[in-house]
Amino acid sequence: MDQQIIDLMFKVKGLDIIEHCPHCESYVAPTLIDSDNFYDETNHQSLETYILKCSRFNCGRYYMVDAWLDTDFDGKYYAVEAIKYPNNMSNYIDKDIEKVSSSFIEIYNESITAENAKLLKICGCGYRKAIEFLIKDYIIYSNRQDENFDEEKIKSSVKIMNLINTYFNDNPIKLVAEKIFWLGNDETHYQRKWKNKDISDMRSLIEILLYKIKMELSYEKYTTEMNPQNKDA
Ligand SMILES: [Zn+2]
Prior knowledge:
The protein is α+β, with helices and mostly antiparallel strands. It folds into 2 domains: about 5-85; about 95-230. Helices cover about 50% and strands about 20% of the residues. The chain contains 8 helices and 7 strands; from the N terminus they run αβββββββααααααα. A hairpin with a 4-residue loop joins strand 4 (about 30-40) and strand 5 (about 45-55). The longest helix is centred in the last third of the chain and has 27 residues, at about 200-225. The chain is elongated. The N and C termini lie far apart (about 65 Å). The structure holds zinc ion. Zinc ion binds next to loops. Zinc ion binds near residues 21, 23, 28 and 61.
């Protein structure tokens, strides 16, 4: 590892973010090309900026990290907040989920764009809205062959928790959907209930739910396609 990086990691705690290259999405031992610092008189905080170069032969691109520093009780620096540039999460694309809910994909990607732009208050509400669409559309999709199923009732329902409890039989899906919805409500309502959970927890839970739904869709596909009654003669 670059000696300057070793010195920097020794000097400032909590800078693990610099070991991840945003271009090739790999964990790397970067080279520190340059750094600069600035003292914010108003907030009494120092900001350090690091220009880094990815160490992978096939990448080797540059990126930048801004870190707001503070000192702990024994005078050591630690990063209160560190932001990496470029920091863009890419848009979500999935053909199977698109079939179930194109609205989810659209709202989810708009929320990712808001998060990339650091509009954190807005993207939380966006993720909640995206989940509401995904849950309703998934219920409609999985009951599409039931003649007695009332699609309009699902679309107009405002009680999402009731829908989750009524229509989700698979326990892990139900538990994950419930938790996303709790966090989603936190993003929308004035007072937070889940103080130590944030947007990244919400996104992780959404990823788990998407994974579970994709598994259900594959299961449905193969049980239909490989039904012994449909077997080729
Ligand atoms: Zn790289």
